[in-house]
Amino acid sequence: MKNAEIIAKLNLEQKCALLSGAGTFTTRGYQKAGVPAITLSDGPNGVRKQAGAADHLGLNPSVPATCFPTAATVACSWNPALGEEIGRAMGEEAAAQEVSVLLGPGLNTKRSPLCGRNFEYFSEDPYLSGKMAAAYVRGIQSEGIAACPKHFAANSQELRRMASDSVLDERTLRELYLTGFEIVVKESAPKTIMSSYNLVNGTYANENAHLLQEILRGDWGFTGAVVTDWGGSNDHALGVKNGSTLEMPAPGGDAVRELLAAVQSGKISEADVDARLDELLTLVLDTSAAVQKHSRSFDADAHHALARRAAAESTVLLQNDGILPLAADTKVAILGDFAETPRYQGAGSSAVNSLKVDTVLENLAQSGLQVLGFAPGFDRRGMADAAKEAEAVALAKQADVAVLFLGLDEIKESEGLDRTDMKLADNQIALLKAVQQANPNTVVVLNAGSSLETPWLTHCRAVVYGALGGQAGAGAVLDVLTGKLNPCGKLAETWANRYEDTPAKDNFAGAGRTVQYREGLYVGYRYYQTAGVPVAFPFGHGLSYTSFAYSDLKASAEGVTLTVTNTGDRAGAEIVQLYVAKPDAKIFRPAQELKGFAKVPLRPGESRTVVIPLDDKAFRYWNTQTNRWEIEGGQYELRVGASCADIRLTAAVEIVGTDAPDPYAGKTLPHYKTGSVQNVPDAEWEALLGHAIPQDKIKIDRNMTLGELNHSRSPLGWLIWAVLTALLNASYKKGKPDLNILFQYNMPLRALAKMTGGAISMGMVDGIVMELQGFWIIGLVRVIYEAVKNQILNAQMERRLRGA
Questions:
Q1: Pick from 595, 652, 660: which is nearest to 633 by CA?
Q2: 229 among known catalytic residues
Q3: pLDDT per position as a tens digit, 200-231
């Protein structure tokens, strides 16, 4: 152990106390033993250190910081070097604010476009996600503090996120939902990892020995600290035994007593506690020393410029018939509410108190355009407004070009709330059609953190996807529209024609606790290309104001070399993508998979030799029979292209296999062989899983959510459910989600003992459960008894700890 000398100074109670937080974002410290307290902060796209009363939902004010583009945006840059710069800037700001652990980046694989938190995640592809996230981690940790990649693992929806069970086969888990984390751990050595709220195949992620011990620490060699998501601990003792280091936020004395009792009963050993404490002390001592040495200031202007460059490099030109870029002095009408009040980040714990926020209207003076005026055009909350629409149409008629700023509003993209559809609001589409009739030269700029249905494409000549561009995104979009910058972003997720085409549509955020990942490996382009489903915009798609030619491909098992030439008259950057395919595969697999990429800046007429290496993940698959990575031998195709659907060059390579047995021998899996996985029968799904489909029952226990209290046997439970539901519906009608109510609605009862600073004990929760089970009087008496006991025991423990 690295910290044996300090650990030897502590008694068991002190050790156990250190393994849970002291406040919403702070750890415990023992000065007599030389253990300082440290501060953690949200931070996927900027530092959100709380100012005053702390909360974990982004509700209360935080210290001003640079709001960088969200991960979903920066992923479209396909530029890990840019990600590392952003990470370094965030690490600098965090250290300046005396933050030791920055809770990010988020890199969950985007299983469905409806996940409300997709804006926080990079991609549907684990390779791209892993490479981008590893870069962020290297940048953040270059400042001496810790990055905390999240959420580990298979955390793909917000509905019942604290109590849902992600059920998936081992190959899908390894190849899709863990590979990104594997890349991060092996290539950037994060000092912390955040475990997810959900269960994975029946066991909570935070106490899942398979995830935390066998894979994370065993297979990948992770030596850092595992931090729970806030309130994400179920059985604290099992968490400590199986690899979870720090329980957050502040569960109070009850969590300490739980560990003490577990050691005394033999459920866990003191050696388990010491192992976790050693991990925590390494984190605390290393990062606190770095923070103490760090400057308390940073260059805000430089970070704003970086945010603008990141937004520009991540902007994707989805459609253009030649109308863009707009020439200087073009007479334009600026339309759409988002031009005045931008959507530049998502809602929830990632919401940054931005140092400044650029708007399109404020930046027009530097654009070189002749602006005739601005009209908001639509009501942001989706309500019809004929007067606003008429004003916008009248202005559009006077212009050479109408530039219409559309997007998703705040309620569509939020932590705690999944989207209900992939559509733009009807009033925005109505405005687009009316404007296009008034002025055929219509350009759309989209702000959204996830993909959209686009049946309205014929009503505009160009579409620019600005995603959620951070505090400087408005200026970046104007630079792209006017050609000051050549767009070079490409999509990091597929845009389906409609939600009904998506592979997980019948198994995403369903009615029960069990979430069946029945589509298996076929997520995103892996599904659309294998099953032959047409899409609006493919993975990796993005246009430019110039053109690129590919030639001279040379390929081997180690990678490819080719020449890329800028054949146009503008400088630009091309993202060259390398996909691996095995058309004659005996072990079923997607039609092709991304295994490498490079971003290549080129002057007009310039050619450059591009080398894209292949690593140990290029040809492997997880074999559930041998329980290890294997390679199917034979001929593979290496496909190089501008998107997954725009392959320019191919080459064949012969790969030596590992001669492993077929893991699917004797199993009938026709849907998985063809990729047509929208309607997999139960028998086939069970064959892939290797066991029966878990039953989906709502139980009246510690893990019943407040949103499920209508299934209780208590009038009090019914009343609480009715009040919460009414408050939630009222917030929807206002057009702004109430994140506090959302969190409570999806919160299991056990979280009451994890999120209240010790005011509620697990014994009190058990009394509440008894009340909900129908033992009304006995349950309430137990709650009162346990409350009194909890207060007495907490006070006694705190006196002992202070005395130490």
A1: 660
A2: yes
A3: 999 999 999 999 999 999 999 999 999 999 99
